Amino acid sequence: MAFWKRLLVGCAAALSLGMAAHASTGGIAWDKAPVNTTNTASLQNGAKLFVNYCLNCHSAAFMRYNRLTDIGITEAQIKDNLLFSTQKVGDTMKSAIDPHQAKAWFGANPPDLTVIARSRSGHGGTGADYLYTFLRSFYRDPNRPTGWNNLAFPNVGMPNPLWQLQGEQKPQFDTQEEHGQEVHVFKGWEQVSPGTMTQLQFDQNVGDLVNYLAWMGEPAQNTRTRIGVWVLLFMLGFTVIAWRLNAAYWKDVK
pLDDT band for position 180 (50/70/90)? Predict the structure, then answer.
């Protein structure tokens, strides 16, 4: 009995230490991402932001440019606005960055983003929620090689790709005592210098970018949903017809 008591006490202590460490490193709750993959205007703006700010380092190697026609972008618009090299409309979205240089600069090759919104879900929410929080949680940190850090991903290897739009911000913390230890609890952001967008505009644009990333993870999801609804309606109608036919066939059988 004493063994189990010591085990429970040890687990409780480890849990409290883990929570304290999480708080002291600036861990934050994920914000809810405004995902609506039927909003074509949002998806189009997100695609533009993705090509301009993400595709320089990150690839989407399982996504072709011409698939953007599904969200209302014509092939002519893709050629004129989203292709900046010798790539063709039918090519996949591959970054031109050299993987060896990327590893030397960032410590690891930037991950492929094709299904990033589907792979980052966790106890804090969906993958879209994580990305929405992550992209809005960068701050200047002179102790990091890139000069940037992130509250949603402490000690991240990448800089803030959207800093010109967002400006620079600084996290604010409250000091609290938990389980006999002093921890720093995140309470909000202080704007240090403005960007080219207001905070509301920036949040809306990040929402569009995350919306596009969520759509890119499964471009056929809206078609699948529509087909699923029609299949269910067909099955419902067929069930009614089968039930009435069964009643008609057996009406004279006592």
Answer: confident
